[in-house]
Prior knowledge:
Mean pLDDT: 84
Distance between the termini: 23 Å
Helix content: 55-70%
Largest sheet: none
Structural class: mainly alpha
Oligomer: single chain
Order of helices and strands: HHHH
Strand content: under 5%
Amino acid sequence: MLSYPAKIPLSSRTLNHLADRIRAHRRQRRSRWRRLNPGEPALLVLAHLRNGDTYTRLAAGFDIGVATAWRYVREAV
């Protein structure tokens, strides 16, 4: 189960769709190991797009660096 300390009005279908897209992108690029599994960056990106959360707040919520949060958002968008 994925959680984030904010209320985000979205369906699990949306989250799963974005996670599948991230997973396919990583597989296609033969991406190396990442700290977060594909579902977590999907939640991070949707929190940023829906709530306008800052990269600093996202980084703190997911226990990653600010630059890493920025890269996850950029990768998904």
